[in-house]
Amino acid sequence: MSDQQKQSKFPPTQQGLEYYCASQSIELSECSEPEFRLELVEGKFLVGGTIEGSRWLLKEALIGWGLESAIAFAKLEKWWEALRLAYEVPHQSPDEWLAWAEDLPLAKNYSHDWWIPLGSRYKGEHRWTRDNLRQAISTAVSQAGFGSCFGPNYGMQLVQDVFTPDILIVSDLRLTENICHNCYMNGSADLAIEILLPERTEIDEQVRWQYYERGGVQHYWTVNPVTQEIQFWWRSSIGYQLQTLDPDGCYRAINGLTFSPELFWSLELHLPAFTSTRQERRWVLKYEEGLEELSWGSLPFSPVVDLQPHAIQPEQFIAWCPETKLESGPLIGGGEIGTRNAIAMLLMSLGLVETVKLMPGYEWVRILRRIERQQQQDARLRQEWWQYAQTLAQQLRWSYQVGGVGLIGDLTKDLPLNFWSEIHLILWEVPEKFKKWHFLQGLPDKPRVCLTEVKWATPAQWQEICEKMMILVGRWQGLEQPLRRKGLQFHWLSD
User: Do 54 and 349 contact (CB within 8 A), yes or no?
Assistant: First the structure.
């Protein structure tokens, strides 16, 4: 395919892509929704590899969960200041803000103030290529005892950044360094493979290319699922060098592994695209208890949300980032906690000034004024929640024979209750017959109630239990502790 044909098929400019989508009668959602992958790049929580994707997801969250879901992460004074800076107005008093909001045009269509193509119409081809390529290379790598295959949502930490390549290969020599953990590896992979979105190839061919080269990824492949073109990059002392196939059409730059692109794309020959010298593997990765490593819930959730973006640290990203799963709502990571964490990290990455531009100004004024009125009643509401928490604790103690109940979370902090606040009860000496879901399903929706048995507490929760828990019923002696988490450990097999 000539360069001119490629440019004609995949317009490189935003205007060309918008025209292309419209001319092909493609639903806007195909190009407006980014590839859902969550990464940390230069301190920012990126969705689909771009800050535009992050902006899209935050706006969807504001629409689906309400502005209250974001306002919870910063003081009201900062939100008012963000409005002043974003809209360049000097208003101070409630009456001034109300008059300003009432003068704004209600009929304006804010949902399409800006529309940047983020996704792809080739999502099916992308997924087919990724899944089949991963299965094929994983089998060959396993047969050769060369290493292990990870992905697509497995993190690769390169100094301060955390990427999630579609496919990762880590050699046994690197595995001996125990750099691979449950959900991420601390260092560069031997091989990273990215399946391109044909309309947005610059993300993988330029942006990630530079980070992977600088981060020490030895081999980097980019795969176009539509043109069926694969670029093979090898990192030399002067950086990435583009490699070519051998005369027989195969690629053999990785020791013990032969790859035939022609066989991979063929749907008729039914021959393995990857071949390797079969040999007995002399090592194993085991999940072992008691390994101290970063994982979900390892650190207390304490996002710093300010007027301007605030950098997220790699350890925070690993401990807070939800599962890469997006459902209608939007529900991120399969639950409210994952959604809460994602919204907070999006706010950290965009800052409040940019956030308030995502929704109409009059909506922010309306909700902020309402929350101000609610916070004036915070003392009364906290008292009601305290009484309810004590009632639940008594019920758990005497009706379900739970040994003791403590309280952590929002009610133990000197901050107003907010959209995400909940009554978080800690249970110990819990009978085996106790069913948490059965107890919770009989409770009203508000206030939220969370039950955590000590043995299932995350490291961050355990820290709060030891330092801040308030005992409601029973005696707490600290004898019961969380189950020890398991982590990956490399072992050579004995002869």
Answer: yes
